[in-house]
Design a protein that fits this description.
Length: 267
């Protein structure tokens, strides 16, 4: 049982959540929307806001170089444009440049120490780098400033979870859910903490809801399988592990789960 709970925790901690990528409607990164934004820029070429907005649209479209170019131009026009620094940081994060991202978040916070977006963004980089105390401090600062961004509570919940403070983690994940009910990540996080406290029923409900929200996330299926495995239902566990492995063939908790339960599930 402890092994299973540990596997669930590991799975939750290693997932790159949607809180770390562009979260708005990808239609905002459509060619039509970018064309419209370009027309606005042509009419107001000295307005940094136009470049900042178009840069975000390029980022959502995956055109990171163009996004960086637009943020550079916005910052050139207004060196104290802290939102543009934070947006460029997010692009750098998506490009696999965490050092550049942290530098931009630092600059944004030098200009505006209370900017919750930068605190949360930097906190997520610190968390995934294993710098959990610094990450906790960033999430905590954003929360103390009454942020309405559920990512702050989700990030702090993950750290409470790492510290085996599951009651506090559940409280934070619940707050994250109330602020961003369409996101599966806090349901997975809360379910893992319920599982660690041997509350399998609530854990199972959370994992199933995470799947309902997005059935393409391997972690959710692995978490569901863990509950089946704890119940001794190896056939259903195998089916869920196998589905997770098909979604993400490199996800080790799925691979390990398939190997453990194969005899109960068939081919």
């Amino acid at each position: 049982m402890l092994l299973l709970a540990g596997l669930a925790l590991a799975g939750c901690q290693t997932t790159n959540t949607s809180s770390d990528v562009f979260r708005l409607d990808r239609a905002q990164g459509s060619e039509q929307n970018i064309s419209s934004l370009s027309s606005v820029i042509q009419q107001n070429p000295q307005d940094p806001e136009g470049y900042n907005v178009r840069g975000a649209a390029y980022g959502r479209a995956g055109e990171f170089k163009r996004a960086v170019d637009d943020f550079n131009r916005a910052i050139q026009l207004n060196p104290r444009y802290f939102q543009a620094y934070a947006n460029r940081a997010l692009v750098y994060r998506n490009m696999g440049k965490p050092v550049d991202a942290v530098n931009d978040y630092n600059t944004a916070l030098q200009i505006n120490p209370n900017y919750d977006v930068a605190l949360i963004g930097r906190g997520n980089i610190y968390r995934q780098a294993g710098r959990t105390n610094e990450a906790f401090n960033d999430f905590n600062r954003a929360i103390q400033q009454d942020t309405t961004d559920g990512r702050a509570y989700h990030g702090r919940g993950l750290i409470y979870q790492l510290r085996n403070q599951h009651a506090q983690a559940i409280e934070d994940f619940s707050k994250a859910i109330s602020l961003s009910s369409g996101s599966p990540e806090p349901y997975n996080g809360r379910g893992v903490s319920y599982l660690a406290l041997n509350d399998d029923e609530n854990a199972f409900a959370d994992f199933n809801h995470a799947i309902d929200l997005n059935d393409k996330i391997a972690e959710s299926w692995v978490n569901q399988a863990l509950v089946y495995e704890r119940r001794g239902d190896r056939a259903r566990a195998f089916k869920s592990y196998n589905h997770a492995a098909r979604l993400d063939p490199n996800y080790k908790p799925a691979q390990d789960g398939v190997a453990r339960t194969r005899s109960g599930g068939g081919a």
